[in-house]
Amino acid sequence: MIQDLVLALRLQALDRKIAALETEIATLPKHIAEIEKRLEAHTRRLEADRAALAANQRERKRMEGDIQLHEQKKSKLREQMAAAKTNEHYQAFQKEIAFVEGEVRKCEDKIIVLMEQSEPLDKNVKAAEISLKEEQKDVEVAKAKAVERTAIDKKELAELVAERKGAAAGMEPKLYTEYERVRKKTKNTPIADATDGRCSACQIALRPQFFQDLRKQDKVMFCESCSRLLTYNPVIDVVADTAATQQLA
């Protein structure tokens, strides 16, 4: 196989590795962003749980404050009732006191409900806090790995680009120009094999004379259909070779 085709094959292998590395390098920041997005969602859930618990506690304090106000009002009413001069006034104070006591019971009942609701809320907050810390550790590890992977990829990419530059410099300029044209058009698949008499890329059968010329491997040839560089690698017939060896023996 002529040297230019050997270099072209090397270039194709390098181009595919370079493309894969560039894709991975471009993907890693997106991967980190997705990880951080999950962490943000976890943080928002924790904040929501904390807000619900805080609202519950504020409502309980409000109810407790209302009870204090009702108790103060009840004490004043009792003082006023003790000074009542008529039975009618006395009964009026009793009704007012009963109403206030009813309001106190309502507040107490509401506090009990709030206390029952606060238990699962408190558990949710504590569990979410523990889970968030674990998630934060996982995120930091994942980010560190992504940064490390990116550094490794970039180093390897630089080495491959340098190697590609050397391979490209060794090719005949006109052939390299054609290689690049086909590579860009075929997404890093500028070379196809035609050992079985057809282009392995576009599956078009080669003309008999064209195929015979290709088998000589004394020049670079291109598929007449898709323009790819063609290679020819004779298939080794193990059975036939073994039979021929036995006949010679």
Could you explain the architecture of this structure?
This protein has 249 residues and is mainly α. The chain has 2 domains: 3-171, Orthogonal Bundle (Helix Hairpins); 174-248, no CATH class. Helices cover 80% and strands 2% of the residues. The protein contains 5 helices and 2 strands, in the order αααβαβα. It has helices spanning 3-82, 87-170, 173-186, 208-216, 238-248; strands spanning 191-193, 229-231. The chain has a two-stranded parallel sheet. Strand 1 (191-193), helix 4 (208-216) and strand 2 form a beta-alpha-beta unit. The chain is rod-shaped, with a radius of gyration of 42 Å.
Treating each run of at least 4 consecutive H or I residues as one helix, how many helices? 5
CATH topology of the largest domain: Helix Hairpins
Low-confidence stretches: 235-249
Number of strands: 2
Using the 3D structure, state the CATH architecture of the largest domain.
Orthogonal Bundle
Topology:
Blueprint: H1 3-82, H2 87-170, H3 173-186, E1 191-193, H4 208-216, E2 229-231, H5 238-248
Parallel strand pairs: 1-2
Helix pairs in contact: 1-2
